[in-house]
Amino acid sequence: MKKVIFVYFILFLSCDPGSFGLDENIGIYSYHDGMAFAWESFFEDDYDIAIAYINSSISETQDEQYFNSAYTALGWLYLFKSNMFLGTEYPDSVDYYRDQALIEFSYIENEQEAAIDYNTGCYYDHCCPDCFIADREIGLLYSEIEEYFISPNEEENINDLVDDLVLFVGNNPTYDFMDGKPPGNNGEELDLNIGDIQFYLSHVYFRLGRFTESCIELNNLEDYKNCNLDCTINWDNSNLDALLECLSPSTLF
Asked: CB neighbours (10 Å) of residue 119?
């Protein structure tokens, strides 16, 4: 951890604020400066550096009173960091970071107040005062749905979660994860938009055995119309192959 912090301070002092369109006279010790550097590191897969920037933004800046967007960003970082341990000898690390992601995504206190404050506090080209809300919502839904599939919990109504996912798609027709975030230094981005969320919804339907809904959702996506799926058939083990083939790859992140 000391090594990570040491590297973080070197990068923090050497990064050029101008790369984000920041005024060098302002310095980089503002909340939104730190968040910009964190997202840049995220898209470059430097998750530990990104986490260090976010923690610094929370603990060392005074220009914002609400840190909701930082908690949402931590949720995404923990989620992606958990994937680094998939298929390794450290399965407990997968669970740990996914649990941490769920905690961060569950933070909703003062969410609307934060969006209002960010509207006046962040004025760089990449700023979006309320984009973190949709990021948090889809991060939370994904985490809860995947947690259900890993460890089904009778207290968790998966159908309610699916309904919320459908509602998210309807309420956010232009969702793009890159909204409100600068890319990496070499233009790195995360390609995650509403079409990917709809694809994930189709996959969730399939995993729940709701094949007709899975088929219809997939047919609504322009990229999958060439699958030529007939959603009116009676589904059984003899005709699922075509639907399953169109659903590959099977994961969102």
From this structure: 13
Q: Could you tell me if 79 and 143 are in contact, meaning their C-beta atoms sit under 8 angstroms apart?
A: yes
pLDDT tens-place string over residues 35-88: 999 999 999 999 999 999 999 999 999 999 999 999 999 999 999 999 999 889
At 20, list the tokens.
């984000």
DSSP code, position 193: B
Q: Which two tokens stand for residue 46?
A: 């430097």
Alpha helices in the chain (DSSP H): 2-14, 31-43, 47-60, 68-83, 91-105, 111-121, 131-150, 158-171, 194-207, 211-219, 241-246
Determine phi and psi for 203, rounding to 5 degrees.
-70, -40
Q: What is this structure's pTM?
A: 0.85
**Cβ-Cβ contacts under 8 Å for 212 (sequence gap 6 or more):** 231, 235
The two structure tokens encoding residue 43: 């898209």
- Domain boundaries, given as residue ranges, for the chain: 68-192
